[in-house]
Write a structure and sequence with these properties.
By secondary structure, the chain is of the alpha/beta class. About 35% of the residues lie in helices and about 25% in strands. It folds into 2 domains: about 240 residues, Rossmann fold (3-Layer(aba) Sandwich), CATH 3.40.50.300; about 70 residues, no CATH class. α4 packs parallel to α7 and α5 crosses α7. It starts with a strand and ends in a 7-residue tail after the last strand.
Length: about 325
């Protein structure tokens, strides 16, 4: 199968007054045409920085892609200059950001923000750009798109704003869409509508989708394959079926155990004690060892290798060594 995107041993560091923060530290995965890849993990595990590294939207004065490759259509985009990257960003690779109210510019109408993306990449007239924008709003499930075209973000509900963000991201028919927490702060009804819309648009265009979320229910519904990240690393990778029904890393198991179920007894839900280690000071060995109930002396001193569990299923844990 043709791979649209290959991320190989990516390392993205932030240089701060307190030291070097290893926000992404040796991450690898791939994405095929028409595939949905879910990325899960607690806040601070490097999910969003991985996405911003792919988009090359890191703050240049503090952040740097230290090493690794990001192959898009077999071309390493880490080596492209900003002018070359602008031809790809928003055109062939698009991103839906976490919070539409802060991602949309309050000073411009929704239509203006969509046509800006269209005219930046497509050689068409202003009228053609407007017609295309209205059609995209309609395809995004927005009623009365001609009216919404002239409205400002503050005049729209959270669900409509998120649809506008999707419309902007899809305006140039990208090959890859990165959705970073696309349903955050939306009620469950609107969340279901947004997810159905993304699946419909993906089926029509065949684009690859990278879905970043804390919601394992969303991952189970949407994803073909899943990347589990912890403390800037990929600790487990596999198909959604393998991850949910045959998890092998203690962190993945702990995440799944924390999901509320109909059979959950009264009282506190299971939780993972402690917090994610600061990226400024990762300990030797397994980075999950301090929070793992099954850790031993080796876990705290030696970093575990990546172990192949089955075809396409990998885990980084000493307990998986035969």
């Amino acid at each position: 199968m043709y791979k649209l995107l290959e991320v190989k041993d990516l390392r993205t560091y932030f240089y701060t007054d307190d030291g070097i923060a290893k926000a992404v530290d040796g991450v690898s995965f791939s994405l095929e045409k028409g595939e949905t890849l879910g990325i899960v993990g607690e806040s601070g595990c490097g999910k969003s920085v991985t996405a911003l590294s792919i988009m090359r939207l890191l703050p240049g004065h503090t952040a740097k892609i230290e090493s690794g490759e990001i192959l898009f259509d077999r071309k390493d985009i880490t080596r492209l200059n900003e002018k070359e990257m602008r031809r790809i960003r928003g055109n062939e690779i698009s991103m839906i950001f976490q919070e539409p109210m802060t991602s949309l510019n309050p000073s411009y109408t929704c239509g203006n923000q969509i046509t800006e993306a269209i005219t930046a990449h497509l050689n068409i007239s202003g009228k053609e750009a407007k017609d295309k924008a209205v059609n995209i709003l309609r395809a995004a499930g927005i009623s009365n798109p001609e009216k919404r075209f002239n409205e400002y973000p503050h005049q729209l509900s959270g669900g409509i704003r998120q649809r506008v963000m999707i419309a902007i991201a899809l305006s140039c028919n990208p090959k890859i869409l990165i959705a970073d927490e696309p349903t955050t702060a939306l009620d469950v009804t609107v969340q279901a509508q947004i997810l159905d819309l993304m699946k419909k648009l993906q089926a029509e265009s065949g684009m690859g989708l990278i879905l970043i979320t804390h919601d394992l229910g969303v991952i189970a519904e949407m994803s073909d394959n899943v990347v589990v990240m912890y403390a800037s690393k990929v600790v487990e990778f596999g198909s959604a079926e393998e991850i949910f029904y045959n998890p092998k890393h203690p962190y993945t198991i702990a995440l799944l155990e924390s999901i509320p179920r109909l059979t959950t007894e009264k009282g506190r839900l299971p939780s993972i004690e402690g917090t994610v280690t600061s990226s400024l000071n990762y300990p030797p060995g397994c980075r999950f060892a301090a929070r793992c109930k099954e850790a031993d002396a080796r876990c705290g001193n030696e970093e575990p290798p990546t172990t192949r569990i089955s075809e396409g299923h990998y885990s980084c844990c000493w307990r998986n060594q035969s």
